[in-house]
């Protein structure tokens, strides 16, 4: 779930390159995919549908 739209670590570049090789689901404030449920309901749905996740920390 993406909440920081303008990161300083250029993570958007990594996500774009990764999604050119494998399907990547992006959901959140900065994505065109929005989850209109509670935060935890969205996380549970994502966890059920995807066995892996990639996390970038805000710093």
Structure summary:
The protein is mostly helical.
Q: Tally the helices: what do you get?
A: 2
Instruction: Tell me the series of helices and strands, N- to C-terminal.
Output: HH
Estimate the mean pLDDT confidence.
79
Give the low-confidence spans.
none
Biggest sheet record: none
Radius of gyration: 12 Å
Classify the beta-strand content into a percent band.
Answer: under 5%
The outline comes out as: globular
Compute the separation of the termini in Å: 16 Å
| Count of individual domains | 1
Structural class: mainly alpha
Tally of extended strands?
0
Give the proportion of residues in helices: 25-40%
InterPro entries: Glyco_tran_10_C, Glyco_trans_10, GT10-like_C_sf
Pathway: Protein modification; protein glycosylation
EC number: 2.4.1.-
Domain Fucosyltransferase C-terminal: 1-59
How is this structure best described in words?
By secondary structure, the protein is mostly helical. It has one domain (1-59). 34% of the residues lie in helices and 0% in strands. It has helices at 11-19, 39-49. It is globular, with a radius of gyration of 12 Å. This is Fucosyltransferase. Belongs to the glycosyltransferase 10 family. It holds the Pfam family Glyco_transf_10. Its EC number is 2.4.1.-. Its main location: Golgi.
């Amino acid at each position: 779930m993406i909440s920081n739209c303008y990161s300083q670590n250029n993570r958007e570049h990594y996500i774009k390159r990764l999604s050119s090789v494998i399907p990547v689901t992006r959901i959140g404030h900065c994505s065109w995919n929005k989850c209109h449920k509670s935060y935890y309901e969205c996380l549970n749905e994502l966890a059920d549908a995807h066995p892996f996740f990639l996390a970038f920390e805000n710093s």
